[in-house]
Amino acid sequence: MVKIAPSILSADFAKLGEEVRKVDEAGADFIHIDVMDGSFVPNITFGMPVIKAIRSYTKKVFDLHLMIDEPSKFIDDFISAGADLITIHYEADKHIDRTINYIKSKGIKAGISLNPGTPVSLIKDLIPSLDMVLIMSVNPGFGGQKFISYSIDKVKEVKQISENTNKDLLIQVDGGIDSTNIKSVVDAGANVIVAGSAIFKDGKLKENIALLRESI
């Protein structure tokens, strides 16, 4: 079954806890939290105190996407804040194998994210030990961007590698996904879909999640 992971980057920050509760009740499988530091990407979003503050509003998986430099320095803090799954960028960590192993040693699921310009071949040897690979289908840093079409080929490549080395791998795609293109992403092999604008649009959370599922 394909999992839907609403990105709270598109939520109303003035009532973030309530927005998390509402999207949980609307049928979310994961809560996708984009952590940005203003360095690895040009925007700044949520830190540990905010994540800890909203943790009590849902029991759903807190899916943290760390778009930050040197993520290894902050793993323990994010775990303490309530992370269930931590995804770090291949481009942001000099010793990514060590960081992935450290995350997993703490009983937390670990993933690697790839920017649009980063080839899948660079993480081929790491895929057997991962819980998730996140393919960015927009350039990270802002919501509401247009889907990059060649991301489909990257999803297919990850899927092919996982069939031989890690059949339980979650393949997540994030960026520009809506009811018009979600089926092509899933058909390519994705089984976790991140959507922000497409879910929070007009405040119709339940209807928008249902539309995504119906479009697969």
Automatic annotation (TrEMBL):
Sites where the protein binds a divalent metal cation: 32, 34, 65, 174
Summary of the function given for this chain in its UniProt record: Catalyzes the reversible epimerization of D-ribulose 5-phosphate to D-xylulose 5-phosphate.
Membrane-spanning intervals of the chain: none
Residue numbers binding substrate: 7, 65, 141-144, 174-176, 196-197
Active site (catalytic residues): 34, 174
Protein name per its UniProtKB record: Ribulose-phosphate 3-epimerase
GO cellular component terms, semicolon-separated: cytoplasm
Organism listed in the record: Clostridium paridis
Protein keywords: Carbohydrate metabolism, Cobalt, Isomerase, Manganese, Metal-binding, Zinc
Cofactor detail note: Binds 1 divalent metal cation per subunit.
HAMAP family, alphabetized: RPE
Pathway noted in the entry: Carbohydrate degradation
Presence of the UniProt keyword Transcription regulation in the record: no
Protein EC: 5.1.3.1
GO MF term list: D-ribulose-phosphate 3-epimerase activity; metal ion binding
Root EC class: isomerase
Similarity field: Belongs to the ribulose-phosphate 3-epimerase family.
Family matches, as SUPFAM superfamilies: Ribulose-phoshate binding barrel (SSF51366)
Pfam families named among the record's database cross-references: Ribul_P_3_epim
